């Protein structure tokens, strides 16, 4: 998601999954923004400060988010905690395009840090995020999204931690897992369940986003295990056993997205 700074004012918006209130106040090159969002998929409140200097902008902020990982799963999990974020954006005026990079951190029962990169031009946007400062996939594992106007398309993964011993020796002990991507010299983790692996279309309204799609092992196989396999030797690591986790289900998720994340909580 690529964010833009607007003039002073307060904005009240509704979406299929909730309602959000956004207020921003600009003084010189500093903009302060506040938000509160409420919905049956998740709720949040927070604030941020952005400093614009030439074609660059620098933002920091944080707040509290809570919601369901995937409401239609047979094993939905409720996650809540504080988030903080910081990042920078560069606006290329000549080509009307924007580049963003940032970091976010989450507290609560699933504490984690994630990096974020984004690109936007006109109605088109692209963003991706991954867990940072650790070599193993866990919790907010990976997400990527392409957007055209208010309609995003993407995937979003959330897993439990793989066994620490297997992670440290970079070899999974499961021997009977067969991936569509072929043999992996680093094996397959014996643990680490898919909480959800969602492939979705969505609807954006301000900083809130509602997502509808499918959650299943096939999404995890064609995203996470593809990256872990032989085609990406620099990041080659054990497969995740996609048989672990909840059965396939509809994917239903929504909430507030900070400017440097693709995870609502």
Helix content: under 10%
Low-confidence stretches: 3-8, 12-16
Secondary-structure element order, N to C: EEEEEEEEEEEHEEHE
* Tally of structural domains: 1
Name the overall outline: globular
> What structural category arises from helix and sheet content?
mainly beta
Total number of helices: 2
Let me know the largest β-sheet. Answer: 14 strands, antiparallel
How big is the Rg? Answer: 19 Å
Output mean pLDDT: 89
Record the strand order, biggest sheet.
1-2-3-4-5-6-7-8-9-10-11-12-13-14
Task: Please indicate the percent range of residues in DSSP E strands (runs of 2 or more).
Answer: over 45%
Number of strands: 14
Terminus-to-terminus distance: 15 Å
Descriptive report:
The protein is mostly beta strands and 265 residues long. It has one domain. 7% of the residues lie in helices and 53% in strands. It has helices spanning 164-169, 217-228; strands at 9-15, 18-27, 30-38, 42-53, 56-68, 78-92, 97-106, 112-121, 124-131, 139-148, 151-159, 194-205, 208-215, 249-256. It has a 14-stranded antiparallel sheet with strand order 1-2-3-4-5-6-7-8-9-10-11-12-13-14. Strand 7 and strand 8 form a beta hairpin. The longest helix has 12 residues, at 217-228. The protein is globular. The two termini are 15 Å apart. Mean pLDDT is 89; it is low at 3-8 and 12-16.
List keywords for this structure.
265 residues, mainly beta, 14-stranded antiparallel β-sheet, 2 helices
SSE topology:
Layout (H helix, E strand, L loop, with lengths): L8 E7 L2 E10 L2 E9 L3 E12 L2 E13 L9 E15 L4 E10 L5 E10 L2 E8 L7 E10 L2 E9 L4 H6 L24 E12 L2 E8 L1 H12 L20 E8 L9
Antiparallel strand pairs: 1-2, 2-3, 3-4, 4-5, 5-6, 6-7, 7-8, 8-9, 9-10, 10-11, 11-12, 12-13, 13-14
